[in-house]
Amino acid sequence: MAEKGSDLFYDVCCDICEEKNVNKQAMFYCQKCSKGLCDDCLGLHKQFFTKHVAYGREEMDKWPSTTKSFDDMQFCLHHPDRLIEMYCEDHGKLCCSMCHFHEHRPCIKLVLIKDKSQAFHDAGEFHKICATITNVQQELKTAIDDTQEFLKKLQGSYDKAYDEIKVFRQKINDILDELERSTIYSLETLLQTMKQSLKTDTDKCSKATNGLKKISDAITNIKTDQNDLSFIAYQRASEMVSHADNILKELTVHRSTVVTFKSNPSIDETLSGFRCLGDIKCAEKQLENNKNTILKCSNKSLYDIRSASDNVTCEIRGIWELPGGEILIADNNNKRVKLLDTQYKVVTHTDCWSHPWDMCSISPTEVAVTVGVYARINTVQFLIVNNRQIVKGRELKIIHNCHGIAHFNGSLFITSLTALYQYTLAGQLVKKIYEDTSGNFTAHKCAVCTDGSKLYVTSLLDNKLLTLSMDGTVLSCLKDRVLRSPTGVHVTETGQLIVCGRGSHNVVQVNGEGGVMTLASKTDGLHEPEAVYFSACTGRIIVGHTSDKILVINTN
After folding, report:
1. What are φ and ψ of residue 488, in 5° steps?
2. Which residues lie below 8 Å from residue 482, measured CB to CB, with a gap of 6+?
3. Is 265 exposed, middle or buried (0-12, 13-18, 19+ CB in 10 A)?
4. Is residue 360 within 8 Å of residue 407, measured between CB atoms?
5. CA-to-CA distance for 269 and 529, rounded, in angstroms?
6. Contact 467/456 with Cβ under 8 angstroms?
7. What distance in Å separates the CA atoms of residue 466 and residue 420, rounded to the nearest whole number?
């Protein structure tokens, strides 16, 4: 509210009130009058100027551009008709009264803008922002230039791949042409052989016909008293008739023969089994393996991930990041998988039929979640995220306990608490990689190193982190008093190994020499952590534990 003598500042004042020395905020703007209008003056304006159109703050593009920039700064982005009045230090967000009511009521560190601005001005931060903006603008320009250069390289790689496809197709054509020539040559050879055989039969028939004609003529000229000659002629004729009968029988056999072609079924089956000529992939440049580089943690924050419909305290057992920065978490206690936005607020969830134990990424928008009841029913549930909704996909039934899960190059690695198995994505068991039946939880959770050459398995009760070869050979066994009851294990894109200590209430990084460095502990609010994930995009470590809040750690 503004009155005479008020020192409140508005980006656009009501011009009618200003003429009366009254300071009121303009909520409308008339282009024909070039005047700002408050709510009270709008009614009078409509009475006097019925054909004029006054545009509200929801149509700031119709206002003068000089005022629009002020509006962008002073008005809430989410509630355009509300002034920014507060600053939430818990989330680092500017807030209007509506933001405070709907989203920031539980927040403790809410400061009025006028109080925050004074401390901000005293610190001299305002004068530093221009230099920061200049630097960021230069970085963005460089990023644009780099992107344009990358587009050229991308087009070049496309052209090269396209040419390789054509060359490969020509190679296949050449192979098929050669097979065709070879097959036709065999066909023609067979035809010529059959023709030659039939010509031979024809010649035999002609010769036999001539012979029979001659003997027939001779018999006709034999006199009745030439008994000896008649006998000889009879015998000769009988032999010739018998020979002719044999020729005719052979002709009957040959005339039943035809040429046929039976295709090679292997060729048809093989070619039909291919969906394309080869794999098309985005072959990204391999990140440098920095597994021995220690992640340096800075500020740590807790974010509430409890849903209104949750029945009990959350227990996060699995975490994964989507390409857009959204986070999927598996809440074991509440039997559901939740989707968080980039500010770690719950957007939606999907309920599971039982407890979700772990999750891994299958594709940029699909994850696999282990769901089950110990020693009873165990499944792998595939979930797809589309338009900020979680959609249930296919489900694999597993015959053993189904707990930890990891994915690499088309293979699923699943722990049963005492063994580690390898499956195909279709659910076919490939092999049992490792087993330790000396106790329970000897194969709790698992992860695969970045190049797929090694597996990591946590043994909860034995306080061990095992490194296995892909055939199950134990390469190393880490046991450190800092890490007790290890559970969740995660390998970053650059090879760093991060492990949760449920019993020690901490998260540690393990380097290549077996050294252990604590990244977060109970003093940071951790209680029985079970899941950890490092976001290469944001440089943040996200930790799930038995709590209604997740811990987010910024790294340098």
Report:
1. -65, 140
2. 501, 504, 506, 508, 516, 518
3. exposed
4. yes
5. 51
6. yes
7. 12
Place of tokens 């039909």: 272
CA–CA dist 102, 79 (Å, integer): 11
Q: How far is CA 96 from CA 20, 86, 345, in A?
A: 29, 6, 19
Mean pLDDT throughout 335-351?
94
Q: What does the pLDDT read at residue 1?
A: 39
More confident residue, 262 or 280: 262
Q: Which of 64-78, 178-192, 390-404, 452-466 has the lowest mean pLDDT?
A: 64-78
Do residues 418 and 440 lie in contact, with contact meaning Cβ atoms separated by under 8 Å?
Answer: yes
CB 371 within 8 A of CB 354: yes
Tokens 């990358």 appear where?
A: 150
Contact 525, 541 (CB under 8 A): no
Q: Which amino acid is at 252?
A: T
Number of H helices, E strands in the chain: 8, 30
Asked if the model's pLDDT at residue 257 lies above 80, the reply is no
Say how many CA atoms lie within 13 Å of 342 toward its Cβ.
5
Q: Is the pLDDT of residue 284 over 80?
A: no
Q: How many CB atoms lie within 10 A of CB 544?
A: 28
Side by side, the strands of the sheet bearing 54-56 are 35-37, 28-30, 54-56
Rg over alpha carbons for the chain, rounded to the nearest Å, is 43
Angstrom CA distances, 35 to 32, 39, 60, stand at 8, 13, 14
Going by the DSSP 8-state scheme, the letter that residue 300 receives in this structure is E
In angstroms, the Cα distances linking 32 to 29, 52, 57, 60, 301 are 9, 7, 17, 15, 51
What confidence score (pLDDT) does residue 68 get? 45
Domain boundaries, the chain: 15-125, 163-262, 297-555
pLDDT tens digits for 7-34? Answer: 455 667 888 888 888 888 889 999 888 8
Q: Is 193 left (phi over 0), alpha (psi -120 to 50) or beta?
A: alpha
Phi, psi (degrees; rounded to nearest 5) at 191: -60, -45
Tell me if residue 217 falls in helix, strand or coil: helix
Please name the residue that has the structure tokens 């190994």: 497
Residue 47 has pLDDT above 60, yes or no: yes
Tokens standing for residue 301 = 């924050």
What mean pLDDT is predicted for residues 275-284?
71
Please give the CATH architecture assigned to the domain spanning 297-555: 6 Propeller (2.120)
Rounded-to-integer distance, Cα 417 and Cα 267, Å: 45
Tokens of 354: 């039982």
Listed in sequence order, the residues at least 6 apart from 239 whose beta carbon sits closer than 8 Å to its beta carbon are none
